């Protein structure tokens, strides 16, 4: 009996001595979950959805969309773009750690380029872009992708051009031709 009791005491001591290590492992797992890539993925999804819907086509859209709140403060202002890439959709391909942040690759399905708000060039390709996301004050923030022109849907491009037809009479004929081309692609 004493041999069994001694063995039981040893097992209890072993279990009790491992508890802090186990707790530490669980705490580290919880911390990883807190900082996992799902939050970073959501930032990129939000950014791409906002861009797809025209948030980057004008300062007014940019401000109203709230897209600036997910970009690292002080990263620079959104450039004024003369071109936009027309896409039928996008998807997040991969996520990988990168220094103090995460790299997230997005694949766009490109259907054309809109140059100068009136010249449309049809295309059919995929385009991959690597976004960089970092933690700032315990929140994921996007490093401003200032080398990426707006990637918008055909519907968004049509709405934008229809607005330009109303406010910029001098480009009316060109914009109407481009709207017609974009509507044909949508079919």
What does this entry look like structurally?
This protein is an alpha+beta fold and 187 residues long. The protein contains five helices and five strands. It has a five-stranded mixed beta sheet with strand order 4-3-2-1-5. β2 and β3 form a beta hairpin.
Total helices: the number is: 5
**How many beta-strand elements?**
5
The secondary-structure element order is HHHEEEEEHH
- Global outline: globular
CATH architecture assignment name of the largest domain: Roll
Radius of gyration: 26 Å
Compute the separation of the termini in Å: 85 Å
CATH third-level topology of the largest domain = Nuclear Transport Factor 2, Chain: A
The domain count comes to 2
Uncertain regions spanning at least 5 consecutive residues: 10-37
Helix fraction, binned, reads 40-55%
Biggest sheet descriptor:
5 strands, mixed
The order of strands across the largest sheet is: 4-3-2-1-5
Task: Give me the secondary-structure category.
Answer: alpha+beta
What does the average pLDDT come to? 80
Strand content: 25-35%
Question: Can you tell me the CATH class of the largest domain?
Answer: Alpha Beta
Tags for this entry?
Nuclear Transport Factor 2, Chain: A; 2 domains; alpha+beta; single chain
């Amino acid at each position: 009996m004493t041999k069994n009791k001694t063995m039981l005491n040893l097992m209890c001591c072993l279990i009790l001595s491992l508890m802090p290590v186990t707790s530490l492992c669980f705490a580290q797992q919880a911390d990883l979950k807190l900082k996992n890539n799902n939050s970073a993925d959501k930032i990129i999804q939000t950014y791409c959805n906002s861009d797809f819907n025209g948030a980057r086509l004008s300062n007014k859209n940019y401000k109203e969309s709230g897209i600036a709140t997910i970009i690292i403060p002080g990263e620079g202002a959104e450039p004024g773009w003369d071109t936009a890439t027309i896409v039928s959709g996008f998807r997040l391909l991969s996520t990988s750690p990168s220094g103090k942040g995460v790299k997230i690759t997005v694949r766009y399905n490109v259907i054309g380029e809109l140059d100068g708000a009136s010249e449309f060039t049809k295309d059919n390709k995929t385009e991959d872009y690597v976004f960089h996301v970092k933690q700032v004050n315990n929140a994921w923030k996007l490093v401003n992708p200032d080398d990426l022109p707006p990637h918008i849907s055909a519907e968004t491009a049509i709405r934008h051009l229809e607005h330009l037809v109303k406010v910029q009479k001098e480009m009316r004929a060109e914009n109407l031709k481009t709207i017609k081309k974009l509507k044909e692609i949508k079919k």
